[in-house]
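chain below, 193 aa
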Amino acid sequence: EGLRGSAEGSVAWSAARGVVAQARFAGIDVATLHSRGVASDLSGTLNYTLHDGEQRFSGTARNARGLPLSADFEAALRQNVIEIARAQLRLGDGRAEVRGRIELAGTRSIRLNGTFGALDLAQIARGVDTRLDGSFELDGRLDPQPAGRARFVLADSRVSGRPISGQGQFELANRRFDADVDVHSGLARLTAS
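prediction:
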């Protein structure tokens, strides 16, 4: 069976606006693209501009059949730095959002922060009964030596029907890895340092 769906696009250039491109797609069935693909009905838009040395990317995608998934994003690339203004993923009633900055040269650093709410991973992995609410931060670099810190907070979450909450921090500095985690579910508590 052949590919299902449609796609169209446009590209324009002017001295005032630079390169402006847009692609629109509808009715794309991933199962017709790859043998392991899941039946879907994807639609959305992708936008691209290049002007004065800055590239901008944005887009939306929605699935109307099967996995209840949608995504939106806005990002820019200028002088080897990616700025993620917004990247949002919705899975059923749940959502996750990320913002941040990634430097592709120099110290090759990354700084991301995000939130997630009502995330039910059973939507993508059967039997994983969750409702996750919380936030995370990631701040690190690769050069001259890998170093960084990651933090998370879980609040009013559920795993396998049980309440879970807590927080944690992981840090890599001077070739040393430190972890500080405190997570609890009802009367059970996991603390690690």
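The longest strand covers residues 147-159. Residues 91 and 122 are 10 Å apart (CA to CA).
thats it, cya
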